[in-house]
Amino acid sequence: MQQLFYFFQKFKYFLFFLMLQFIAMTLTFNNLNFHKSKFVNSANSITGGIYYKISNFSEYMSLKSENEILAKENTRLKNLIEKNNSVVLEKDSLFTKTTYQQKYTYTNAKIIKNDYTTAFNFLLLNKGKNQGIEKEMAVINSKGIIGITENSSDKYTRVQSILNKNSRINARIKNNTFYYGTLKWDGKDYNTIQLHDIPRQAPLKIGDTIETGGKSTIFPEGILIGTISKVNHGNSAENKVDIKLFNDMSNLGYVYIIKNLYKKEIQSLENIEDE
Amino acid sequence: MNKPFQFILLFFFLLFLQVSVLNNIHFLGYVNPYLYISFVFFYPLKENRFPFLLASFILGLSVDFFSDSGGIHAFSILTIAFIRLFFIKIYFRKTSTDYPFFNLHSESFGKVFNYVTTLTVIHHFILFSFANFSFQNISHVLLNTLYSSIFTLILFFLGTYIFTKNQ
User: What number of helices (H) and strands (E) belong to chain A?
Assistant: First the structure.
């Protein structure tokens, strides 16, 4: 017993150090797990509030580019309405019931903290549970996809960026809906992301547009991602394609959060099949 | 001036400087300084090390809360806070009786430079290894360590130079 007390007395700082290191390690490992990252994140009221103040302060710097993006999106949406109207006039019978069956709702939000330099990047939004934001919702802007909501407090939400090594998103080639792949990031360049496991027979050309595949309950079909910048013709096991993003991930402002209204129904169906 | 109060002030000053300004610099696209570790250099040497270790851990954890990085800042700052004594013994040849009189400003620049550089490089290397969390991109980790260390050291020595001149 004497020996034990002597041991603790001699190594008390080292043991204290080890205990704190263990806590830090646990938090690090939990942070990499999508379903366990509860404790250390910036979506609490203190850090969220401070980031909100900082972003209010620095928002004026990017007002001009933000306005340009909004004007472009407005033009695109107006064109879309015109196009849809003309289709409706020509073929009245095509106006089916499914048009009115709303599947997704959109909420707008502002990014108040942006990261793109580490291998595991997270963003922070200024909306939370009070505005109906929950886990696993899609986050996009007018140029393309941004990420998936991960953890929300009452007022703020943390988003797992597509620039995160744990991010997996279903994607396909535009105008060719047969071939699907998985979108991952290798942690190197924040403008380039990789499409894995696309079938070998798929016709891939540099400059082809990649969009979301709609094979999950999170992202709707056909949201833009980027263009193919490099095709590997080797015989590697995973057919890897480099994609240049449409979005400049270092400069993000206002975004949309997409909620799938049928998500619970789809998931309950999937659960029944498992049992 | 009241000593403990001074270090509480330093704690919050470094924390907010780090998360509001230095984390957003992104020099050349990705190089950031991590100046909050100067807390470890400024904190006085004492016989009882528990408050110092705990304060360093909490400072690192606070930076983690802001930058969504789990516990990597806490881990790396705690490591250099613990091994600080070892390098003080090596570079400055101090024993425990000298601790109350030890002051970084009264030491020669060469020794201080060696001491600060060693701890900064160790901290940055652990930090970037954990941030990367795989053996791929190891060159990325080493380059990041080099550039960020240079950036942090320039800011640290400029800062101490300016503040000691005023006194």
Answer: 5, 12
